[in-house]
Amino acid sequence: MKQFTQLLMPLIFGIAFMFINSLPARSAETSKIIATVAGENITQEMFDTYVKRRGVTELNELKPEEKKAIVAELVNRELLYQVALKDKLNESPLVVLEFDNIQRNLFASAAIRQAVTSQGPITDKMIRSEYDKVVSTQSTKEYKARHILSENEKDAKDVILALNKGSKFEELAKTKSTGPSGKNGGDLGWFRNNQMLPEFTQAVAKLEKGKYTTAPVKTQYGWHIILLEDVREAPPPTFEEMKNKIKASLSNQRLDKYINSLKSNTKIEIF
């Protein structure tokens, strides 16, 4: 199945890329020809687009053998494309539907790029400003804790009763916890507030070191009994560590704002 998927994907992408190359903004005819298949040209522009689609941003870093392999893929794609046209697969209802989906995705992606870039570049100054806001609201504390997860409140209360009678938290976690950390005595290691569910971190923040929650803490996963083992101050992530994430977040904010503006001016019915 994996090999079959690998064989089909170039053909699917080929249809998409053929559509891209048919747009008036760019012309493949002026691009360098790197191969021909039954008289049909495979151009440098098609090569570059294909490679970038696969996540390669620095084309000059490709090794000669890698370029050769990619050209071979493009030749195979063109062969399959020509067979598909010869056999009129382009008239198949399933292919027409798939092509329609690809076309809509391409146009939507183009609209996204336009919406984000039309507002100007996202500068380091803008990212730095957002970074300062994020860091100022983040807790500088890290917690080291263990927990015992129960499927229902009664079982969780029974665990607390056992702890009150002197049972060891780590041993109870191994025998009573339904969570994956149970086998390790419920050890969760070090974590920050934003790495756990809000209900969980709120309970942890109220605990003293060495104490456990005297009432079960409910989350979407079940009922927790939490033991806080240690607390430490930790520096926030550096600007460089968060730069790409913040840039993506700012782009998403622009996109959300744009889409919401479209929705506010468009009649939409969902049945």
The quaternary organization reads as single chain
* Strand coverage percent: 5-15%
| N-to-C series of helices and strands | HEEHHHHEHHEHEEH
Uncertain spans: 1-28
Which secondary-structure class do the elements indicate?
alpha+beta
The biggest sheet, with number of strands, parallel, antiparallel or mixed sense and barrel status, is: 4 strands, antiparallel
Order of strands side by side in the largest beta sheet?
4-3-6-5
Total helical segments: 9
- The value of Rg in angstroms is 28 Å
Please, what is the average pLDDT? 87
Strand tally, please? 6
- What's the shape? elongated
- Binned, the helix content reads 40-55%
End-to-end CA span: 36 Å
Describe it.
By secondary structure, the chain is of the alpha+beta class. It has nine helices and six strands; from the N terminus they run H-E-E-H-H-H-H-E-H-H-E-H-E-E-H. Strands 4-3-6-5 form a four-stranded antiparallel sheet, sandwiched between helices. Helix 1 (2-21) packs across helix 3, helix 1 (2-21) crosses helix 4 (93-117) and helix 5 (124-137) crosses helix 9 (239-264). The two termini are 36 Å apart.
